[in-house]
Amino acid sequence: MKQKVKFSAYSLIVTAVVLILCVVGIFSLIGNAEKLTLFCIIMGGATIVGLYYCPKSIQADESSVTLHRLLSSPKVFNYNSIQAVDTCYPSAGGLRLCGSGGFFGYWGYFSDIMIGAYFGYYGSRSNCILLKMKEGKQYVLGCNNAAEMVAYIKQQINK
Pairing state of beta strands 95-102 and 55-60? Predict the structure, then answer.
């Protein structure tokens, strides 16, 4: 079973605005080589990191859940490492410890009063699954139909 990550309107707007402002910044700094170079390095680095972590899709099969990202290799969560799985709704008031709160989705370390500390890879808060790992880590992943994905993963774990 494979599902794409759905991005919220907020995430799409934040990404578009940041990229537009990046282009505006480049044009406004033409003629000032030092500042232009520094700006391009910072914005280029931020964009590459965003593309690296940006979630694209989630795939569940007989042995694992795989998170596909835009620029990086897939992240695999084997069923024998998963303690529990459920749907979740990350709070808008959750604390982003390190990562993005909308630029190429939501990714990074977050702390939420209901979920606790977790690493997130999602495009919209409305369709997320929570993977609780046996070693204590937690991951929040986004997909189009979280309830269907959770039911499939639970079925595979219980085999």
Answer: unpaired
Helix (H, G, I), strand (E, B) or coil at 129: strand
Given CA atoms 58, 74, 91, 21 in this order, what sign does their dihedral have?
negative
pTM score = 0.90
In the structure encoding, which two tokens stand for residue 157, read together? 């774990």
Residue in this structure with the two tokens 């309107």, named with its chain if needed: 9
Question: Token digits for 67?
Answer: 């998170």
pLDDT for residue 95: 86
Helix (H) / strand (E) containing 25: helix 9-28
Q: Give the C-alpha separation, 41 to 33, whole Å.
A: 12
User: Among 133, 58, 141, 76, which Cα is nearest to 105's?
Assistant: 141
